[in-house]
UniProtKB/TrEMBL annotation, chain A:
InterPro entries: Cyclin, Cyclin-like_dom, Cyclin-like_sf, Cyclin_C-dom, Cyclin_N. Residues 169-253, 266-353 form the Cyclin-like domain. Gene3D superfamilies: Cyclin-like. This is Cyclin-P. The keyword Cell membrane does not apply. Residues 262-384 form the Cyclin C-terminal domain. Keywords: Cyclin. Belongs to the cyclin family. The gene is ccnp. The keyword tRNA processing does not apply. SUPFAM superfamilies: Cyclin-like. It holds the Pfam family Cyclin_C. Signal peptide: none annotated.
TrEMBL record, chain B:
Residues 9-295 form the Protein kinase domain. It is found in: Cytoplasm. ATP binds at K38. Belongs to the protein kinase superfamily. CMGC Ser/Thr protein kinase family. CDC2/CDKX subfamily. This is Cyclin-dependent kinase 4. One of its GO terms (molecular function) is cyclin-dependent protein serine/threonine kinase activity. Signal peptide: none annotated. It is an enzyme of class 2 (transferase). The lineage of its organism: Eukaryota, Metazoa, Chordata, Craniata, Vertebrata. GO terms for biological process: cell division; G1/S transition of mitotic cell cycle; regulation of G2/M transition of mitotic cell cycle; regulation of gene expression; signal transduction. GO terms for cellular component: cyclin-dependent protein kinase holoenzyme complex; cytoplasm; nucleus. Its EC number is 2.7.11.22. It catalyses: L-seryl-[protein] + ATP = O-phospho-L-seryl-[protein] + ADP + H(+); L-threonyl-[protein] + ATP = O-phospho-L-threonyl-[protein] + ADP + H(+).
């Protein structure tokens, strides 16, 4: 597949790294960090990545904690490599520089590592049978997701974000009634976001539009479909079956049959699997991700960014005791977000604010869904109310 | 919406009866461009548009996002209601004036130079490799739906349509050509991406010959014509799950392929034989065909 040229992994990474070319390590290290970080002295940034042979990839991996020299990660530097003297490092560097024609760059090593992890994660999740294609699939996801955002969060004049949130909340409830897969929900809301901007509907037709988007998402994703009469019943027979099917044709024509979506949930599960996140973190992240469906401003962000932000926020909310392996795995998983720090932070702020007031809102379907024992009661977690505080925002009064 | 699409595209001429319905050349009033309109009538029941149609057209749209140079552009799709039981799905494709059939007919006497054939084949295989890597079978590859632009660019058309049309197919009394069908399709056994490679092989030979390679008038006759060239497959190669038995055909030994395609080069003949291999599992894939020495000789 790679040979056909659609899934070039190099291009993929360039996507994120073009702006950071001069200091690859620094941006890489930055993306691993959650709290304050120390400013690097010149030279330090380049040195550590360079004095290791490409064959010794595992050693290179282990070096990360030291090379990053960050508050969090420093503590886990393996004992045998703890010689802290810069002199020693410089010597080693010189030795290697003299011997090697050209040291491998991080840009060459990083994808290889991520690629291996990706293969394991994708096959573990059962997303495919042959892991040879894992990286191609992931590269394709990274590229295709660019088509899954909207240019702005503006809604047609007579709709407000509140109206939209109420509609999404209702779709979430109907989705639960039919026990559809999660992908169907994300697809339905994505179709609704696009359809709202593409076809003219009145306020009274809004619910019909919502249900049709869910119906179409189900036609794309599900094996068992609800009957049209059931859907009409759920809307208290406000609309006839004929009206519903007419809306279906309008939406399909409006969307030009383009029903593709790259669900953020897939990015979340892949990243969580690479990062060895605990079940609790994953459920918390899924909760935050689903809350983002209700937020009109989130439509401009990439699915991978939404997923990355949800996972990062979930980790800082739950504050689980870190382990060296866990931190390292987290760094690898985070490397797909190089260059999107600002976006991730904005999304985390939206999610944190939403999560802090979720229990008190009118649109509570997601809050209730994630308060059950199966979801480890994540939506009831006490730390959620203080979540905005973690990001330096003020917490809402309750 | 029905009016809208009728207004936007002004029919200019009937291009021809495709196997599944009439195709129109039309002018897009907005851009002035010519387009090809293909309509499918699908039965709609109380559940609205059938799942298969929704998924297949969505897949065509998805392929469109890759903007592959050897795939015909799908510019627009619309769904309109005809009657309560029938919805018309109109696919709007870019219009290319010339297909490979007319292109080959126009070639003067000594035939196409081999470099030109190499270029056409490479583009054709590129498009096919793209479809196959996206799990799409063409199923009906023939010179009529391989388009050649005035600048010599090859574009595959009509791929994947077979499945969209399938529910409607039984009603159409149109005979679909057998000439490019692979043995496994003719024998009605299971088939996958190799079926398109067989058709590509037939087309490859046709580029040299400027006339079709196997012109059968029934399934059995078509198979007979194939075996007359590639030889009757061995007993153990014959698929077990088919009704047509090997005994129906007279034993034949393979003919040198250069008897049928005298103009072909040595490497070209090798590639052609790898495409016209009876066993679909042994047939070369589109990706591997692109790596064949024929393209570098």
């Amino acid at each position: 597949m790679a040979r056909t040229g659609f899934c070039d992994s190099r291009q993929l990474l360039d996507l994120h790294m073009t702006d950071d070319r001069p200091v690859p390590l620094r941006t890489w290290a930055n993306s691993c960090v959650l709290r304050e970080r120390r400013v690097f002295a010149e030279g330090e940034e380049v040195a550590p990545g360079q004095h290791y042979k490409p064959a010794q990839e595992s050693r290179w991996v282990r070096r990360i904690p030291i090379s990053a020299e960050d508050g969090i990660i420093m503590d886990y530097a393996p004992q045998h490599e703890s010689g802290p003297s810069d002199v020693y490092e410089e010597e080693a560097l010189l030795k290697y520089l003299n011997r090697l024609p050209g040291p491998p760059s991080l840009r060459e090593l990083m994808p290889e590592l991520l690629r291996r992890e990706m293969e394991v994660a994708i096959s573990k999740l059962g997303l495919l049978y042959d892991k040879t294609y894992a990286w191609d699939i992931f590269s394709d996801m990274m590229r295709s997701q660019l088509l899954c955002t909207l240019p702005n969060a503006d809604l047609p004049k007579h709709f407000s974000d509140t109206t939209r949130a109420i509609l999404v909340d209702w779709i979430i409830q109907v989705h639960e009634v039919f026990q559809f897969s999660e992908e169907t929900l994300y697809l339905a809301v994505h179709l609704m976001n696009r359809a709202l901007r593409l076809i003219k509907v009145s306020i009274s037709g809004l619910q019909l539009l919502g249900v049709v988007c869910l119906f179409l998402a189900a036609k794309k994703e599900e094996c068992l479909l609800p009957e049209v009469s059931e859907l009409c019943y759920l809307m208290e027979n406000t609309y006839s079956k004929k009206q519903l099917l007419r809306m279906e044709r309008r939406v399909l024509t409006g969307l030009k049959f383009d029903l593709y979506h790259c669900p953020p949930l897939h990015f979340l599960l892949i990243s969580a699997s690479i990062a060895r996140c605990s079940d609790k973190v994953v459920w918390m992240a899924r909760y935050l991700l689903e809350l983002s469906l209700l937020e009109g401003h989130c439509v401009v962000y990439l699915p991978s960014q939404l997923a990355g932000a949800a996972l990062r926020l979930a980790r800082s909310i739950l504050q689980e005791a870190p382990s060296p392996d866990g931190e390292m795995a987290w760094c690898i998983a985070s490397s797909i977000h190089i260059g999107s720090e600002a976006a991730l932070l904005s999304i985390m702020q939206i999610m944190a604010t939403a999560a802090a007031r979720a229990h008190a809102r009118e649109t509570r379907a997601t809050f209730i869904k994630f308060s059950t024992i199966q979801t480890l009661h994540v939506s009831m977690h006490p730390a959620l109310k203080a979540a905005p505080g973690l990001l330096g925002l003020s917490c809402p009064q309750t | 919406m029905a009016q809208e699409s009728a207004v936007q595209y002004e029919p200019v001429a009937e291009i021809g009866g495709g196997a599944y319905g009439t195709v129109y050349k039309a002018r897009d009033r907005d851009s002035g461009q010519f387009v090809a309109l293909k309509s499918v009538r699908v039965q709609t029941n109380q559940d609205g548009l059938p799942v298969s149609t929704v998924r297949e057209v969505a897949l065509l749209k998805r392929l469109e996002q890759f903007d592959h140079p050897n795939i015909v552009r799908l510019m627009d799709v619309c769904a309109t209601l005809r009657t309560d039981q029938e919805t018309k799905v109109t696919l709007v494709f870019e219009h290319v004036d010339q297909d490979l059939r007319t292109y080959l007919e126009k070639v003067p006497a000594p035939g196409l130079p081999i470099d030109r054939i190499r270029d056409l084949m490479q583009q054709l295989l590129c498009g096919l490799a793209f479809l196959h890597s996206n799990r799409v079978l063409h199923r009906d590859l023939k010179p009529e739906n391989i388009l050649v632009t005035s600048r010599g660019q090859v574009k595959l058309a009509d791929f994947g349509l077979a499945r969209i049309y399938s529910c409607h197919m039984a009603l159409t009394p149109v005979v679909v050509t057998l000439w490019y069908r692979s043995p496994e399709v003719l024998l009605q056994t299971s088939y996958a991406t190799p079926l398109d490679i067989w058709s590509t092989g037939c087309i490859f030979a046709e580029m040299f010959r400027r006339k079709p390679l196997f012109c059968g008038d029934s399934e059995v006759d078509q198979l007979g014509k194939i075996f007359a060239v590639i030889g009757l497959p061995a007993e153990d190669e014959w698929p077990t799950d088919v009704t047509l038995s090997r005994q129906n055909f007279s034993p034949q030994t393979p003919q040198p392929i250069t008897d049928c395609v005298p103009e072909i080069s040595e490497k070209g003949a090798e590639l052609l034989l790898e495409m016209l291999t009876f066993d679909p599992l042994k047939r070369i894939s589109a990706l591997n065909a692109l790596e064949h020495p024929f393209f570098t000789e």
